[in-house]
TrEMBL record:
Plays a role in vesicular protein sorting. This is Vacuolar protein sorting-associated protein 35. Belongs to the VPS35 family. Pfam families: Vps35. Gene3D superfamilies: Vacuolar protein sorting-associated protein 35, helical subcomplex Vps35-C. It comes from the Eukaryota. GO terms for cellular component: cytosol; endosome membrane; Golgi apparatus; late endosome; retromer complex; retromer, cargo-selective complex. It is found in: Cytoplasm; Endosome membrane; Golgi apparatus, trans-Golgi network membrane; Prevacuolar compartment membrane. The keyword rRNA-binding does not apply. It is a peripheral membrane protein. GO terms for biological process: intracellular protein transport; retrograde transport, endosome to Golgi. It comes from Marchantia polymorpha (Common liverwort). InterPro entries: Vps35, Vps35_C.
């Protein structure tokens, strides 16, 4: 037998001590078996007591002690069978029960007593309740934590199937369920005391080691609660009046962090959901009384998760949640726990609110006021803390904000939550941006339309980190260019989700959005104002044809003023090319609404941008073609205004840097004098002037090529001009005759065959296609065929 009180040592020593103890157990077990085979009770008890004495060791760690315990447990099973046989041979169980108490040492005596007690109860020679009560009381004789825990664990194990529960064979004379509950509770209480006492044995420097060892033994204590939960006779009433108060009393009074956390978790896991729901107040009442270092947030989160799972799996119990006021009790408990633990970390407090919010979204999804209440409680906790720096707390706040967004799939519903933006204010700049991005993506994914100016205002307050520079934002130079573009393109897409069929409300929406975008700085305006302008142009289309009333809240005049101011703001960025395009879009819209002065003003602004801000030659080419195309489609102008604008267009065309660009722009201007529409223009002479001017420029380009390269350039421009001549010839322009086309065809053919002309397969193919087209037209038998008959190929 090992001496007591020796300090545990290294792993190698533990292995050696265990091996020695195992060898002695095996040695004594051998002689015990021999005595059992010989039906020698006295020797059997003697050797079994010696075997059990090995469990008196203090040298082994809990893990090694458990291995030793299991080895002796197996041997005790054999002894129990022998005791049953003894009773059949005429010896009473009462005698056996008395006999084993003569063992010299208390630990072997109690193990033998429990073994005989099991047989005694089974024989029903004595009431189960009396034997159980005697055993649980006698077990107090062992107060060493590890030895006492394993002894009581053995008692719990051998008595599990012998409790006088409802429907059990031991009920009645053997006792009732109350006796069974009392036995288990008493055993649980004593085991918990022993378990907690382990923490206070040994030097302070080994505190962590002891906590680890205690953790390994926790299931021995928790099994008692599992036994209680399995008793048929423990109904809601008994659980409410007896079991839960007694268990919680032990939990609170033990004042041990590890025990309180584990036992609260056990209670939540082993007892039924409906018990928790009906005893919510009692269970939650214990939470603020726990030690400050207990991870109460996890305990309460698990409770709320169990209850919400219960509601989700059994919708018929939802009225019970309302009846017991589950949310109110949980909410009050969260507040009390946070108040009772002033040292609780921010992440812990926010985690509790996340768990409570998750509970609401699963049980009371229709109660937005509950959701807002939780967010409000979180705001109160965050008050005075500014931007949250702790990454774990930030993660929990994001989880809190994401939960309603994911559950409702509707940002409009979320905008009704007054405290939502207040929580967002506590996120740092980068996290706020991520959250804002998530909100926009939710809108786009679910096709959520924001239909009022108030909602737009509220939404943009949530998205302000994307729309304008917020507190803690890096300078524009420090921003990642690609990320910035992606974010702003997302905001631009959002604009198209701001819609309302009522023009008045739609105009308010546009004005509200413009107010927010205006605070975004020049780099953002380039992305955000363009979609706003197109949205306003859509509003123009809906107002088109309505009677003009400048005093009404929304009119064409007011919308065009809004458009003018918005494009002007964009031009200040500066974004000249985009501004010019948008001015032209607005001009065309004004033309469709028969607002000549407005259309003229937009064209004027476009020309001013062209003159003052577009210096790049390629950009000038693109711009002048846009101007020509828009002006050609614009039918609202009178003769004077149209002449002014067409004159400007032809003048700018002729001043482009490169001759080929000049040539193409000039012959494009010919379309300004030939518009086939009602009240259109068909000025054949000015068309011909443009085409002749284009030819002169093409000739000049050829001469320049000859002077610089020593050979004429390709005939591309001439073939393009030929196609323009053919277009107007088909349209019936009297100034474009077959002789003119014939002359141009011969010129092109002569030049292309010249040795001085650079060969280009592309031009050859282009010209060949043009010839085929003429031949095709000549084959027609209608008026077109007659016109083409005059052209000789």
């Amino acid at each position: 037998m090992q001496p007591q009180g020796e300090v545990m040592s290294s792993t190698e020593e533990q292995e050696k001590w265990l091996a020695d103890a195992m060898a002695l157990v095996q040695h004594h077990a051998f002689f015990m078996h021999r005595a059992l085979d010989a039906n020698n009770l006295r020797d059997a008890l003697k050797f079994s007591a010696q075997m059990l004495s090995e469990l008196r060791t203090s040298k082994l760690s809990p893990q090694k002690y458990y291995e030793l315990y299991m080895r002796t447990f197996d041997e005790l099973r054999m002894l129990e069978v022998f005791f049953k046989e003894e009773s059949k041979r005429g010896r009473t169980n009462a005698d056996l029960y008395e006999l084993v108490q003569h063992a010299g040492n208390i630990l072997p005596r109690l193990y033998l007593l429990c073994t005989v007690g099991s047989v005694y109860i089974k024989s029903k020679e004595a009431p189960a309740k009396d034997v159980l009560k005697d055993l649980v009381e006698m077990s107090r004789g062992v107060q060493h934590p590890i030895r006492g825990l394993f002894l009581r664990s053995y008692l719990s194990q051998i008595s599990r199937d012998k409790l006088p529960d409802v429907g059990s064979e031991y009920e009645g004379e053997g006792g009732n369920v109350m006796d069974a509950v009392e036995f288990v509770l008493q055993n649980f209480t004593e085991m918990n005391k022993l378990w907690v006492r382990m923490q206070h044995q040994g030097p302070a420097r080994e505190k962590e080691k002891r906590e680890k060892e205690r953790s390994e033994l926790r299931d021995l204590v928790g099994k008692n609660l599992h036994v209680l939960s399995q008793l048929e006779g423990v109904d809601l009433e008994m659980y409410k009046e007896v079991v839960l108060p007694r268990v919680l009393e032990q939990v609170v009074n033990c004042k041990d962090d590890l025990a309180q956390y584990y036992l609260m978790d056990c209670i939540i896991q082993v007892f039924p959901d409906d018990f928790h729901l009906q005893t919510l107040e009692t269970l939650l009442g214990a939470c603020p009384q726990l030690q400050p270092n207990v991870d109460i947030k996890t305990v309460m989160s698990q409770l709320m998760e169990r209850l919400s799972n219960y509601a989700a799996s059994s919708p018929e119990v939802l009225p019970e949640f309302l009846q017991v006021e589950a949310f109110t009790k949980l909410s009050n408990s969260v507040v009390k726990v946070i108040e009772a633990q002033p040292e609780m970390s921010l992440v812990g407090a926010v985690s509790l609110h996340v768990a409570l919010l998750t509970f609401i979204l699963r049980v009371h999804i229709d109660r937005l006021d509950y959701v807002d209440q939780v967010l409000g409680a979180c705001v109160k906790k965050l008050e005075g803390k500014g931007k949250v720096k702790d990454s774990k707390a930030t993660k929990q706040i994001v989880a809190l904000l994401s939960a309603p967004l994911e559950k409702y799939n509707d940002v409009v519903t979320m905008l009704k939550l007054v405290n939502y933006p207040k929580v967002m204010q506590h996120l740092d700049y980068e996290t706020n941006k991520v959250m804002a991005t998530v909100i926009i993506q939710s809108i786009m994914k679910n096709g959520t339309y924001i239909t009022t100016a108030d909602k737009v205002d509220a939404l943009f307050e949530l998205l302000k980190e994307l729309i304008k520079d917020g507190e803690g934002a890096p300078s524009m130079d420090e921003l990642d260019e690609e990320d910035f573009k992606e974010e702003q393109n997302l905001v631009a897409r959002l604009v198209h989700m701001l819609v309302n069929p009522d023009p008045e409300e739609m105009f308010k929406i546009l004005t509200t959005a413009r107010k927010h975008f205006g605070q975004g700085g020049p780099k953002r305006l380039e992305f955000t104002l363009a979609p706003l302008i197109f949205s306003a142009l859509k509003l123009v289309r809906s107002l088109q044809g309505q009677a003009a009333d400048d005093d009404s809240p929304v009119s064409l005049k007011k919308v065009f003023q809004f458009l003018h101011q918005t494009v002007e703001a964009l031009s200040m960025v500066p974004a000249p090319e985009l501004s010019l395009r948008l001015y032209l879009q607005c001009a065309e819209a004004a033309s469709d609404c028969a607002l000549e002065p407005v259309a003229y003003e937009f064209f004027t602004q476009a020309f001013m941008i062209y003159e003052e801000e577009i210096a790049d030659s390629k950009a000038q080419v693109t711009a002048i073609h846009l101007i020509i195309g828009t002006l050609q489609r614009t039918q609202v102008f009178g003769v004077e205004n149209r002449d002014t604008l067409t004159h400007k267009s032809t003048g700018y065309s002729a001043k482009l840097l490169k001759k080929p660009d000049q040539c193409r722009a000039v012959f494009a201007c010919s379309h300004l004098f030939w518009v086939e529409a009602e009240h259109g223009i068909e000025d054949g002479e000015r068309v011909l002037l443009c085409l002749k001017r284009a030819l002169r420029i093409a000739n000049a380009a050829q001469q320049m090529s000859s002077a610089t390269r020593g050979s004429n350039g390709p005939m591309t421009l001439f073939v393009e001009i030929l196609n323009k001549y053919l277009y107007y010839y088909e349209k019936g322009n009297p100034q474009v005759t077959s002789n003119v086309i014939q002359g141009l065809l011969e010129l092109i053919q002569t030049e292309m065959q010249s040795e001085n002309t650079a060969q280009d397969p592309g031009v050859d193919a282009f010209f060949a296609s043009t010839i085929r087209y003429i031949q095709y037209q000549k084959l027609k038998t209608d008026e077109v065929g007659e016109r083409y008959a005059a052209i000789q190929i």
